[in-house]
Amino acid sequence: MQNIPPASARRPGFQLRRVVNFFYHRPRGLLALLLLAPLLWFGVVYLGSLGALLIQSFFHLDDFTGQVVREFTLQTYGELLSRSNGDIILRTVGMAASVTIAAAILAFPLAYYMARHAPPRLKAALSLAILLPLWSNYLVRVYSWKLILAQEGVLSWFIRLFHLEGLLNLLLSLPSIGGTSLSVSAFGPFLAFLYLWLPYMILPMQAALERVPLSLTEASADLGGRNWATFRWVILPLGFPGVVAGSIFTFSLTLGDFIVPSILGNSSLFIGQVAYIQQGTAGNIPIAAAFTVVPMIIMTFYLIGAKRLGAFDAL
Amino acid sequence: MTEKLPAVEFVHVTRQFEAMRAVDDLSFTVDQGEFFSLLGPSGSGKTTCLRLIAGFDQPNSGSIRLLGQEAASLPPYERNVNTVFQDYALFPHMTVGENVGYSLMLKKTPKQERQKRVEEMLELVQLGGMMQRKPSQLSGGQRQRVALARALINEPQVLLLDEPLGALDLKLRQQMQMELKAIQKRVEITFIFVTHDQEEALTLSDRLAVFNRGKIEQIGVPAEVYERPATAFVADFVGVSNVVDGTLAQALIGSDRSFAIRPEKIHMTDLETPVPPDACSAVGQIQEVLYLGISTRYRVALQGGYLTVVEQNTTSAIPRSGKVQLIWQREHICPLS
Fold this sequence. Notes:
heterodimer; A: mainly alpha; two-stranded antiparallel sheet; 71% helix; globular; B: Rossmann fold; CATH 2.40.50.100; five-stranded antiparallel sheet; 10 helices; 32% strand; elongated
């Protein structure tokens, strides 16, 4: 009887075929091989640096020598909860929350229009218009806002044109958020944040609203629902996961930003600025680390809440 | 007084979409309490008609009256008409009970009464005890019933059903057909049923309208539409039919006017069988035999064309080939317009 060699051996590239066939029968092995690089990246660079950060926050700075004492202590967290630092945290969270709410209110009509009514070409044009600012430099955009909001800036010019100085002065005279001009009041960073993060709110909202079938709105109208009722009982609840998904971006991005409040606003500090100042000039790495842990904890709770509300179904 | 008014009346209704006339100068009436089907292939305008009645769409011209009241420009929420959607359109974030009670909630019906009526409706569609489920936890047939209960709870003048059984498998579909008919008898509401399934339309309807290219080809009771199709389209779309014209028509009835004859009305015999005096006959050659279990379908070649013949398989002797004699009654010939 003639000895027939196996099919694979008769063709060139025999070794490569063996490797390919080996992995064909072991899909998990192939998957592990593919995931090795990203897992190493996430494990070492992301989690590793987070871990280092967390450890540093349990050290403390010796006031006398100005050196970091590498011993476990809760002293730094004690400092974190002092009156003035607590104010910084509350101010930052308050800003993040108001930016998020304002962004949600501004974004919803546009996202709704894009998802349900805009013809395809207009929709593409709107998507482009929303994303276009992200192509320009972030610092340039923030400085532009400083110019727009300055006392002699273009916004003041418009306000004078429409004789709304009274309203502006009323806003600027509000305690603790007012100031001599919009640029140096709390409205400055608020408007800049709102502008910067709005695209991150519109896009997930639009994605969520696009997933609401048209027949559901028709069904609601069919069963007696006027526009408001349909919005209240059908569109809002089904679009809400998109709102929450968008708010994850607007909230966390505001929470960690240190550039906007250092260029605009009334020079009261935000979490990001404190972390920046403390680890740089002051050399107080432990308190900077502790300040960085705050938004992490807030975001952890925020994400747990968002997951409960189904936000990740819309990402 | 209201007994006399038609539930739905179309008067010269036209709906134009850019280049296409989806509904082309239609006039017809649907009586109160009727089970009326709109039958036609996809794109024939039947669904557009339904959407016009529901108020999701407005006609370009013409008048739509509901119980005599002009309704062409009324929004859906101001019409006493409810719809069972093709995809059911159940609200995924609400329970079955909330879905069914939605219209009552909007009307601010007191909670206790709402609860009671939702329970009654769910009993009617045999979904008692399912109130707390979410639509995603239900099977296709159950969702269908929820959609039906939700649309019926308001006791609408007219219930619109847009191919509601299309997504169900055959057995379930037949069962739901029976139930739909029974429910309609019970609630005595006018049902307008859109379907492309001619068998379903024949089974369920009191009357049906056959749609083609935005026009109605024929309106009538099922037996009439089936037995006396008015046009070649109806003869061809509703059931299987021989549409005969030209030389074959000349040979069979002595005129080249086109006519239709149903395959089961033609009897196939051997050549020796005497032809009854008042019947017609022709001789042909069997070309094709299609065994269908309950019956057998033959294609018989005659001079100038073919005829399709269906014989019930009552005996085991099924002729396979050769020359045969075809016999039919003159009354089964339907002249086509």
